[in-house]
Amino acid sequence: MQALRHPIHHLRLALPAPSIHRPWSRSSVPPIFIPITSRIVRGRGVMSSRREDSIPHELRTAAEPRQNRLYPVRLSHVEYANSSVRLLQLTLPRQDCDDVYQEPFSFLPGQWLDVHIPSISTAGGFTITSTPADARVLPSLDSPIDPPDGENPELSVSESRGREPFVELAVQEAQANPPAAWLWKPLEEILGKPLNIRVGGSFTWPPSVNEISAIKNVVMIAGGVGINPLISILAHLNNESSTSPPLHVHLLYSSRLPPGHTAAHKSSESPSIEDLESQILFLPRIRSIIRSQQQARRLRVSLDLFLTPASSSEQVSVESPADLTEDGTKGPFRAVHGQDGKRDSRESVAYVCGPPQMTDTMVEMLEIIMGAEGGKSRIFYEKWW
């Protein structure tokens, strides 16, 4: 990822507090995020999406934990998150209740799939963006509350006419990646096709910390399609039952505006938040979660949105809706320590996912912010290539 160079009056930089300021000796430029909680700034920087396709997914992730079996699925639904990302639903077959040795399909929020396509020799690696609840059978509303005498209640649920269990993947168009290219074929060529999947990955919720009950604050930092595992975690937390006090979740999300979007606006025009929702991956889903939690209060969710322009030098401003800046959090320091800087960092865990350079930078910053007293053990990260 290439940092942007601008006159300082164009930017509100997401720097840590002065007491922990870290000089940017590698490139003498400010951090990679450009916050736009009050405006969008377009500049010359470009977020790289170059992939190291020379290293197959299964080889790159060989040291990661994996389930020991493949599951058959069917590609049942495709829609567009934006012009470069497809959302794919893979429907799981009904579990055979007579096979007591069959391990039911399950995963943790944040994990990915090995996706085996019959016509391709190498498996693709794609992060699950749905929740574990989506992979369970949802009974239909007209299913009987009590099963008939002598009937196995579990069998009654699995045979209901409710929503079929599924897993969702967000797949970015990449013709150099054979599995991704296949999943971007015309819909009539791929819908209904059988695939095989295997769950893997250690970047998961709940975190591997000793006292999960002591965690009161979750910091999520996403770059580009690094939002994929974090949207699964966030949606899962949104589905959880109420906690007291509510869990704080601070999402810092950096995304690149597609070139077509940049070209569609002149310097005198300002894109609306509705226009942004059609371009920024999972922004509608994030806003929906924030709105729901403003009422339910199971979570306290805030979002800082950072945009990296594709290839333009003009500056365009836009007002952000109130639901994106509920508590005014700016940058990793306040996300960890709160607006007043008094929150104990030992109450926080941090999840970072994005391009390698961005991930390394953010992890180094968080290690300073969260301190030496076990801070590293509460920082979890995954890089996408």
From TrEMBL:
The keyword Oxidoreductase applies. One of its GO terms (molecular function) is oxidoreductase activity. Residues 337-347 have a biased composition (Basic and acidic residues). Residues 68-206 form the FAD-binding FR-type domain. Residues 137-157, 316-349 are annotated as: Disordered. GO terms for cellular component: mitochondrion. Keywords: NAD, Oxidoreductase. SUPFAM superfamilies: Ferredoxin reductase-like, C-terminal NADP-linked domain (SSF52343), Riboflavin synthase domain-like (SSF63380). This is FAD-binding FR-type domain-containing protein. It comes from Penicillium diatomitis.
